[in-house]
Design goal:
Layout (H helix, E strand, L loop, with lengths): L1 H7 L3 H135 L3 H22 L1
Helix pairs in contact: 2-3
């Protein structure tokens, strides 16, 4: 084997020295380079895993916030719908109350108008009676003043009636 190495130009002592040097270098690199790099890689890996966990938690939190928001929005919409229905019911009740009040007022006005008409009718009848009595008294007074025979009395009454008719005809 020594001859083969010599023919290749490799010295066994140098090879051994290089192997020991390589082993020392490997141990030094492992202690001072590979260890810290492995530690840095593990730390970085843990950081990435932590960031991923944090992102997953944030995503879950955002999802929960969205669900809460949608529930809150649905509750607000339901509340608005209920409030609109209540307002519509109140408006309908108010409309019905106003219509009822208007009908009651109309009926009261009609009742008062009928009462007033009846009172005016009674007044007119009383006035007509009073005028009739006055006319009868005036006719009787003329008949007595004339104190003539029955034919003269009839002519006086007929003349008086004609005067009254003429007066009423010109008044209308």
């Amino acid at each position: 084997m020594g001859q083969i190495l010599s023919q290749l130009g490799i010295e066994p002592k140098i090879l051994l020295l290089q192997a020991v040097g390589f082993l020392c270098l490997y141990l030094l690199l492992r202690a001072y380079l590979f260890g810290p790099i492995a530690h840095i890689l593990r730390t970085r890996e843990e950081e990435v895993a932590g960031h991923l966990d944090h992102a997953a938690k944030e995503r879950a939190s955002a999802q929960q916030l969205r669900v809460d928001y949608e529930q809150h929005l649905a509750a607000i919409q339901e509340e608005a719908r209920v409030e609109l229905q209540r307002a519509a019911r109140e408006g309908q009740a108010e409309r019905e109350r106003l219509v009822t009040d208007a009908r009651r007022e109309r009926e009261d006005l009609i009742r008062r108008a009928r009462t007033e008409i009846e009172l005016e009718k009674q007044k007119a009848l009383l006035e007509l009676r009073r005028q009739t009595v006055e006319l009868a008294l005036e006719a009787a007074g003329r008949a007595v003043r004339v104190a003539l025979d029955e034919n003269a009395q009839r002519r006086a009454v007929d003349q008086f009636i004609a005067e009254v008719d003429a007066a009423q005809g010109s008044a209308h």
